[in-house]
């Protein structure tokens, strides 16, 4: 059963962010967004007042030196991709799912910023709703089931909103009802190899993650064995997401042998790219059945 009382707290908080329901304009780090020319899908949505982004030049040597502007290229690529995706997203929310430490918060914040969406972390919303400072404490004082009920209530409340990027809790995928809520928007699974997850988690410690916390033992080994157990229990639950972003695939495309070489921006760009492909592929279905889709989505079909 889902917990009550979360809805009101959440509504109040989200209202403060001005996520609004205005069509065609919202304040964001990249300005107000407006569909200027639906016929030109690639540039149809652009930050108001911003200049069109010039096509990116391929990396090339100049005078024997490598181009020094890799990070600028990456930032431009991210911005250009977000402008394209905004048109297709049409205000729908993005839910990031994945194991603990998969980068949902890190990548989600980048995506929300560049899309001009608001960012929410469902674990933090549960803490607020329950009035406790950490998920670890909620597990300890109440129970995992109590946490899961509140998590479902938070996701239910978020599902009626628009223009959000939501970093979900790592276990949100296990309850079918949560998928009902997340399917109102687009879901993205950040698929990260377990050893990379364990390395990340060992670096920051397990105290904030009650399902991984162990009184003793080598942090990497403990995290790895607990994560392996959870992965097995959860089976294909993450694969319910609309889009899978595999860090191994990105690394291999970029010629890296290790996913730790990927920046969160690389992962955000790939996520946006996959979202765009998914929406284009499913436009007809979405326009027919998606309660969050605005009329522009239907117009895409006629272009
Ligand atoms: N691409 C990356 N490369 C290396 N480290 C990363 C990357 N993305 C995130 N991290 C680091 O990994 C840790 C976990 O990231 P983050 O908190 O974003 O994951 P999460 O999926 O939100 O985790 P949780 O489910 O516990 O909330 C953080 O310390 C973060 O800085
Ligand atoms: O994977 C999980 O089950 C969890 C992940 C975290 O985000 C928290 O939601 C909580 O610690 C449980
Ligand atoms: Mg997080």
TrEMBL record:
Keywords: Amino-acid biosynthesis, Aromatic amino acid biosynthesis, ATP-binding, Chloroplast, Kinase, Magnesium, Metal-binding, Nucleotide-binding, Plastid, Transferase, Transit peptide
Catalytic activity: shikimate + ATP = 3-phosphoshikimate + ADP + H(+)
GO biological process: amino acid biosynthetic process; aromatic amino acid family biosynthetic process; chorismate biosynthetic process; shikimate metabolic process
Pfam families named in the record: SKI (PF01202)
Organism phylogeny: Eukaryota, Viridiplantae, Streptophyta, Embryophyta, Tracheophyta
Source organism superkingdom: Eukaryota
GO cellular-component term (any): cytosol
Functional note: Catalyzes the specific phosphorylation of the 3-hydroxyl group of shikimic acid using ATP as a cosubstrate.
Name under which the protein is recorded: shikimate kinase
This enzyme's EC code(s): 2.7.1.71
Regions annotated as coiled coil: none
Enzyme class at the top of the EC tree: transferase
CDD domains per record: SK (cd00464)
Cofactor: Mg(2+)
Single GO molecular function: shikimate kinase activity
Pathways involved: Metabolic intermediate biosynthesis; chorismate biosynthesis; chorismate from D-erythrose 4-phosphate and phosphoenolpyruvate: step 5/7
Species per Swiss-Prot/TrEMBL record: Panicum hallii var. hallii
């Amino acid at each position: 059963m889902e917990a009550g009382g979360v809805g009101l707290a959440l509504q109040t908080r989200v209202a403060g962010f001005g996520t609004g329901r205005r069509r065609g304009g919202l304040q964001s780090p990249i300005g107000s967004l407006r569909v200027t020319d639906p016929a030109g899908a690639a540039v149809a949505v652009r930050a108001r007042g911003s200049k069109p982004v010039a096509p990116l030049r391929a990396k090339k040597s100049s005078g024997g030196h490598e181009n020094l502007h890799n990070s600028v290229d990456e930032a431009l690529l991210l911005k250009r991709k977000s402008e394209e995706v905004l048109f297709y997203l049409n205000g729908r929310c993005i839910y990031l799912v994945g194991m603990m430490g998969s980068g949902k918060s890190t990548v989600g914040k980048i995506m929300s910023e560049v899309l001009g969406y608001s960012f929410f972390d469902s674990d933090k919303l549960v803490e607020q709703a329950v009035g406790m400072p950490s998920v670890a404490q909620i597990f300890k004082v109440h129970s995992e089931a109590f946490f899961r009920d509140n998590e479902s209530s938070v996701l239910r409340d978020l599902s009626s909103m628009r223009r959000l990027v939501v970093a979900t809790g790592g276990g949100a995928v296990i309850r079918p009802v949560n998928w009902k809520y997340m399917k109102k928007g687009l879901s993205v699974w950040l698929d990260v190899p377990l050893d990379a997850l364990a390395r990340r988690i060992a670096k920051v410690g397990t105290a904030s993650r009650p399902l991984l916390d162990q009184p003793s033992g080598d942090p990497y080994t403990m995290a790895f064995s607990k994560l392996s157990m959870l992965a097995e229990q959860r089976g294909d639950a993450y694969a319910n997401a609309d889009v899978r972003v595999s860090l191994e695939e990105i690394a291999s495309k970029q010629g890296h042998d290790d996913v730790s070489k990927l920046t969160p921006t690389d992962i955000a760009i790939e996520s946006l790219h996959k979202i765009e492909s998914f929406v284009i592929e499913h436009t007809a279905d979405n326009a027919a059945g998606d309660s969050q889709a605005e009329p522009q989505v239907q117009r895409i079909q006629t272009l």
